[in-house]
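Good morning N.,

You mentioned wanting to compare the apo and holo forms, so I went ahead and generated the holo version with 4-O-methyl-alpha-D-glucopyranuronic acid. This is what I fed in:
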Amino acid sequence: MNRPLLFISCLVSAFLAEGAVVNVPGGKSHPVLTAAYGELRSLPANDTVNVRLAKLDNLGKEGYELSRKGHTYTLSAPGAEGVLYGAFHIARRGVADGVTVRESPRFRTRILNHWDNLDGTVERGYAGRSLWKWDELPGTVSPRYKEYARRIASAGINATVLNNVNASPLILSAPYLEKVKALADVFRPYGIKVYLSVNFASPMALDSLPTADPLDPAVRKWWKRKADEIYRLIPDFGGFLVKANSEGQPGPMDFGRTHADGANMLARALKPHGGEVMWRAFVYSPIDADRAKQAYMEFQPLDGKFEPNVTVQIKNGPVDFQPREPYSPLFGAMPSTPEMVEFQITQEYLGHANHLAFLAPMWEEFFSYVDPSGLTAVAGVANIGDDPVMTGHPLADANLWAFGRLAWNPALSSEEIAREWIDNNLVNPDTPDSIRRDLVEMLTDSREAVVDYMMPLGLHHIFAFGHHYGPEPWCDVEGARPDWLPRYYHKADSTGLGFDRTPSGSNAVEQYPEPLRSQLADIDSCPEELLLWFHHAPWDKRMKSGRTLWEELCHRYARGVKKTGEFQTRWNAARPWIDAAVWEDVNDRLVTQARDAQWWKDACLLYFSQFSGQTVTEEALPLMHTLDELEKVILGIDNYTNPPASLLNSKR
Ligand code: GCV
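and this is what came out, ligand included:
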């Protein structure tokens, strides 16, 4: 078997066959319908698809109804997009014989955020360079743009922000807008709208205005003209994503204004064209308040002050995409303001493209706390680059798929999504059920394994400085902001471990509604997964398992390492059923993951044992490194200096 690793791989291979019989209604042509019919015709020749365009109760323009009798499908949809999504549903063989399914997306906007820079680099990208070849555009349009569009549309994604939220003003210059138009033209037939991240100081940078004050008439006029210019080129342009007054980015507060003033000014410029603003709530400054409290403190008082076409985009957790965080308390706290969630598909904090970490369980967990009906949209920071499989780790493709599927239907389970992806993309059709089951379990266990070997029990942000890959709970960088350093978060001392966010500490718990607030504030009712997020727990605290906190910590680190060994065993067993190149690639990465898990366990347990005053338990032995050795490792983005020999035993 040598199938390309694509969501729609069955379609791609079917291009070689004669193609299905597709009966379509007459009438006007539409670019999305043309693409949809193309997808349907590339189904196997023994399939027949009857397409009907009809108004259907309770189905929006992206919805569809689909039934199958043997090899004959009936696909009805009110709009072209529905036909396209229905076509992809057939392609993934998602409908049983004799059954009728009705589908429509839960969220209006299902959007990727690319953190791609105009120089071709990708911030927190681990899959090569940017897919967008800005130097060649608009003259040369790479075939990979269409491949990308089909691929994300097949997962149900309908929008994309092309550039980094740390935005270069240049993206709004006339030559770049021509490039953006070329991409929008490729994406349109796949139902994908283009958005741009904008730099709030663009009027100053591009046209030398003396200010970017959102209440200044000349600034308002500048943005209005810019919006008009964009819509002349791209009539269905989606709008702007903005990171303002965050990590050094300019924003309205530089001019004594509020986030609402800034967002509303942009919203008014876009409104006549039907565009919208996604304004990020990822803000924190080096002030006394606990970093986990700051987004709420800054944004909650602005509830009701935003224009209707502004949505506040909030990261899933209150700090920054950690392997496990509680949900951000801003969700549900701004009832008069549209809110959307930002997930991170790229694995900045979960082992980059080296570690298997299937993220559907993390997002499923989020939706178990946050009611999807309170959200208008879902964003995912893309894990896409120009490497051959686009996502670096071949199994990270499942995360892109999971993001799209959960943005379509947040009630789907991680198991269902994993199975769907494995069946359509990973294994060949003769694969025994037991192997499929093992692979599903390997995926669905993987995120918890990462939590265990990196940051169990609610520990967070104990990474090496800067690139967020390996462990450095001891990290100290002269002059660095305290809230960028691990000690700020783990607060290990002789009495215990963890960040006290109860009323006796930072009182971050007060931002959560009752009864959750009281549950989190009480050390005995706080879920153990979040214990050290909310509490400075004593080393001898008795856990549910009967172990002390210290013993439980050892147990969880050991369990994480053990899991990485099991992944290798399962992967070995699946070898005959998987494309050889994909198997080899993943196998190498699993070896690296197992090495790193050991490294995390040794580093964290040896470091924390200095405070607990206890030795590492039997279960967490052997230790392959000494703390001295590990503290001498100077981590770099792609390498490290002074590695102990044990860290060199890997191909990556
Ligand atoms: C795009 C974290 C990341 C940054 C990122 C930022 C954000 O701090 O480390 O690389 O910047 O989040 O989401 O804006």
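Residues 1-17 have pLDDT under 50 and may be disordered.

Happy to go through it together on a call whenever suits you.

Best,
F.
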